[in-house]
Amino acid sequence: MDSLWLLLTPATMAAILLGTVFGVVVGALPGLGSVLAITIVLPFTFTMDPVPAIALVLSVYCSSVYGGSVSAILINTPGTPQSAATTLDGYPMTRRGEADLALGWATMASLIGGLFSTVVLIIAAPQLARIALRFGPIETFALICLALTCIAGVSRGSMIKGILAGLLGLFLATVGTDPMTGSVRFTFDVFALSGGLGLIPVLVGLFALGEVFSRMAERHGGTAQIEGRVGFKLAPLGEWLLRWKTLLKSSLIGTFVGILPGTGAATASFIAYSEAQRSGRYKERLGTGEPEGIVASESSNNAVTGGALVPTLALGIPGDPTTAVLMSALIIQGIQPGVRLFIDNPEIINAAFIALIICNLVMFVVGALSAPLITRVLRMPEPLLLGMVLVLSVVGSYGVGGKLFDVLVTLVAGVAGFFFRVCGVPVAPIVIGMVLGPIFEESLRQGLILTDNDFSVFFSLEHPIALGLITVTFLILAWSAWTEVAAARERRAAA
Prior knowledge:
The chain has 495 residues and is an all-alpha fold. It has 21 helices and 2 strands.
């Protein structure tokens, strides 16, 4: 009840409503995506209370995943990678003049998938938290090592570049004052760096400005052309009952894939779509405008949102690049995910659960009411859109600490993010390294103090949990390396 009262305040409800509208709009704009949406609002959470701030970020997270389906259905261009599978059947329905019905299928499937994964989150996360209570510094170090393996998951096809980017993120996390000794390191006699690199300016630069610079370099702005009137229409209940098995299986797939660190909603949607092609009631009609394809894609990618929060909240392991940014929002509020989160902040975490349910319900209402409006936003000239993102990014970075140095960091990070994109270097590992770097270093050094600098104890039977986690870490790395080598051999053979 305390958590419910924390939510039922004008500030929190306004944050959910505004965050949902913003997330749907940004998600519907092709090429922007959930990470960019959360990155833009992240600076504004700095001066907010914890519950409204968390509610804002969660609402943007959920609604931006759904928003990608709007442009996928209307203009055959997924607003986010998570909705790529939605284009396969959504756009054919639009060409048949059934865009309103396709949006209804996508919105309801997103609502059901999101609520399903939220229930799993509420049930599973506390159980994982009870296990986490046994964690000391050594166990925490092993867990962070496991968490860092998600760099391999977000670096498919460019593993070496991803690992180097992750190492760069770990290095950037060490800039500033040493937490153990108080000495200053890697500042290069720049006083402004003595407090470390701000997480928000780096995030905004890498994702938001990097994307803006990248799209500016492509030099092909334009507008989306959508003919006809677009509205919103729900299919009859009987049509949903014919496809309930696909809806349930896709929600399960999305939740499970979300729990696995480093996978993501795009993977889940294609797995669910493939399963619908294998066992769906209308499998032979998929790809021709069959609503079952939309149900499979949208219920699974929205189910990932709750599933990805299970390792994020209970273990401090980001489930995907989006939750890595979301986890940084919690850290900014002084809330450290993992280990003791459910013990130290029970009212806040329960408020987050309830907020997630409300966010999904508000997302449905906003999606139903905003379909005609979003169509007009999609016609906005791209240069105007990129200019708005640029202004919001710079203002947000400055507003965090009121320092021009943060704006300079944002610009430098934006240029770096642009060159990373040009060179095919994934930027998500940098964020993961920066988010996990401080606790990685702290737990390692505390563990070495406890063991009198004997690192071999970390791998001994005296700490079975740590040994098990490190073993799993090595197995994941070995499997990732093997699949990367196998994929390279296949590419060479095909060439």
